[in-house]
From TrEMBL:
It comes from the Bacteria. GO terms for molecular function: acyltransferase activity, transferring groups other than amino-acyl groups. GO terms for biological process: polysaccharide biosynthetic process. Residues 1-23, 431-456 are annotated as: Disordered. Coiled coil: none annotated. This is Acyltransferase. InterPro entries: Acyl_transf_3_dom, Acyltransferase_3. The chain crosses the membrane at residues 24-44, 64-85, 116-138, 158-178, 198-217, 229-250, 262-280, 300-319, 331-350, 387-409. It comes from Iamia majanohamensis.
Amino acid sequence: MATPAAAGAPPAPRPASRLRPPNVPNPAMAGIRGLAALAVLVFHVGSQPGGDGEPLLRGIPAQWISPLAIVAVGIFIGMSGFFLYHPMSLAHLQGTKQRPLDFYLARRLGRIYPPYWVALVGIVVLFGYTGLTGWDWIPVLTLTHVYDPRLANVGLYVSWTLAVEATFYVTLPMFAWVLRRLAPPSRTTVRQRFRAQLIGVACVYLTGILCRTLVLLGPDSWLTYTKYALFNFLDGFGGGMLFAVLLSWRKVGHELPRWMSWLVRHPWVCLLFALELYWLGTTLGFPPGLELTGLPAGRLALFAVSLLLIIPLLCLPGIFDEHGTSAYHRVFGSTPLLWLGGISYGVYLWNLPWTQQLSTLQQTGTTTFGSDLIGTWTLTADVPGGFWFLLGTVFLGSVVVAAASYLLLEQPLMARVKRYFVAGRGAPRIRTPEGGPQRAPAPGVPVGGEPDPTEI
């Protein structure tokens, strides 16, 4: 029999609705992630051929739109480095236990693989994709296909970035383990551990720069076989990890450099500088796509410097402004952008298949949906041409499918993983205030309504 609540006790929290905005630790960063996914969508739409066979966007608009994909992918990579390494960095500085490895891997692999599998099956069943046969499915499903030049771009084209991310997910705990052995909390001070982390992250960053330089300057075969290898992107992950170390340093009671604190207090200065660098890059020779081979040294240097500074300037106020009350946070953390950030993974997965399907309809007046598995049907329609119609329809189709993926698959799956580990698998039972038994959660596992720092 239920007992009445004690006088003055706070009411029990209502169960969270699936239709509430995502509960993330940093709404502004979630909004920026959503805008990055939208930037990839705009890039894919603008790259489609028009009626004359040329891209829909050309000239000055194309010059501005093309670099969006590069910056967006850099944002995804940098955010992964920051959000995933921050709990590890903070635990090291504080001398506390790391999160359980099985919890970390369950969340990371559960976050990336199931929605990807659904999207991969979706393009086969709904859009009639026939580029995969036989044993080729195994490396594509496991995201190891990028190491085979024959399969690198089959299936979902954007999956190459997922393969890089998945490799980083597996490698990162090893990096954190090595640092804890080199600077054990029991025998080092906080400052010594902080310096060890800075040195380790600097090695990660410089390794990425060195490897990419060697690949770009080496024989063509190097690029063919290592184009999507993790070491070519370590500078992006390392930049995010550096922000994680600095935030952890502040959380243990130390101050950021004065110039950085000033930028955090003036977020619009950061945004203006980022826009200026973007304009400079597009005007003076930003690479037109993700291919960096054959570029003059000056353009390559400009690209590297621009990318090095644009992404940190965009993200600096969102990461280090702990109050989150500025106009920067109100804009980037607004409900529409927060929702777009929540469904951004689905938008990223589905936008290119929708773009190709609707571009065919726009050019020929007809397109075919379905496959031999469910049957096919042909849509014939006289639709407007041009960039804006295609952008609107692709955005609508991608958002609808991404929202369904988030609400029906991604959110329930992540909640189930969290409940499983909060239940404290194998942990001793404790007595709750109500008198009922409950297992203690594993160390470092978020409980209740607490947002997971690695949610993004």
